[in-house]
Sequence to fold (199 residues):
Amino acid sequence: MIFGLTGPTGAGKGTACHIFAKYGVPCVDTDRVYHTLLKEGGQMVDELTGAFGADILSEGTVNTKKLGAKVFGHPDTAERLHILNTITHKYVIERTHKMIGEMAQKGVKAVLIDAPQLFEAKIENECDLVIAVLADTELRLARILDRDSITREMAIKRINAQKSDTFFREHCHHILENNGDLATLEAQIRAFLNNQGLL
Fold:
């Protein structure tokens, strides 16, 4: 079975992935795949420099802060984000497929695709079920500031550029509420896996 995991930044998708893995459901982190592809260079990086300029590079690799500054916080951010996604999604999906194939060969019963841009990349069509992790905005903001060493203003811009909780509630099969402690989130994940016959 393939589960899609999505939700806004700072909601706790990474934490949820660790819990799923603990119960035998490994995770393909598309964000990590994306960063790996950025480091590797190649076609995707060529396309990015073509679209956003060679000054997004630092010592030959893409500087994500420079790239972020080119995309977020502009009057036409939506268009810039669309260009970024159009370039990167196809490469990320191709690598994700390869990783899922390798996991299936090892006899894994279920895989989780952690994809913040799940709907934008149309990955939901490949998933048996789509799960969203949601959390209150202030809590998400605190987590982003703690995790990403960016300014509060930049964190707010990032939050505002994403889909609303309402969208996730309307488009996902299952919601994990992550406003409490780790044990509360783990209990929700256990219940979900139990319902899917995976525990």
The beta strands are 2-6, 27-29, 57-58, 61-62, 111-114, 129-134, 174-177. Residues 77-105 form the longest helix (29 residues). The longest strand covers residues 129-134. The mean pLDDT is 94.
